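Appendix C reproduces, verbatim, an entry submitted by the partner laboratory led by Prof. M.T., so that reviewers can inspect both the input and the predicted structure.
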Amino acid sequence: MSPRLLNYVLYQGGWFACVLGAAWGHAGAGTLIGLLFLALHLALARQRRNEIELVLGTALVGLVVDTIQIALGTLRFDAGTIVPWLPPPWMIVIWMQFATTFHYSLSWLKHRPWRAALFGAVGGPLAFYAGRRLGVVELHPDLWPSLLSLTILWSIAMPLSLRLAERQQQGDGKYRWPPAKPQE
C-alpha cells in the first residue's frame, strides 16, 4: 500500500471513529479510537517531531475556527460536548487527524494557496453537512448562511493550516512502513 493511500485510510478510519462514536452516543470511545489512528500515523511517520508540531498547530487552528462558528451560531455540538462554547474533544481529534494528511495524501495542495482555499471552501462545508446528516452537529436553522460562513472560514483555515506544514522542515511524505529491505 502506498504511503498516501495508507495515510488516507488512517485519516478516514479516525474520522469515522470520532463521528460515528459521537453519533452512536459513545463520543469518548470514538475519541480514543481516533487518537489510536493518530498514534499509528505518528508511529509510522519518519519525521515524527514535525508531524507532532503540525498536529498541535492545526488543532489550535481548528479550535479557533470551530469556536468562532459556535459563537456565530453557525454550529452547535451536542454529542460529547464538555464546554458549550468550545468544540467537543472528538472534533479537535478530527482536526489533529486532518493535519496528518498535509505531508501525505493532501501534499498536492502545499504551495498552492488558491487551490487549498477552494478545497477548504468546498470540503469544509461538505464535511459539516455530512456531520449534520449523521446527527453529530447542528447547523443554524437557516442552512445557507451557515454554509456560507463555513465556506468563508474554511477557505481561510485550509491555506493557513497548509502554511504551517510548509513552514516546517519539509515532510518527505513517507512512512517507515513497509520496512526497508535489508541490504546485502
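The longest strand covers residues 75-76. Additional entries are available on request from the coordinating office.
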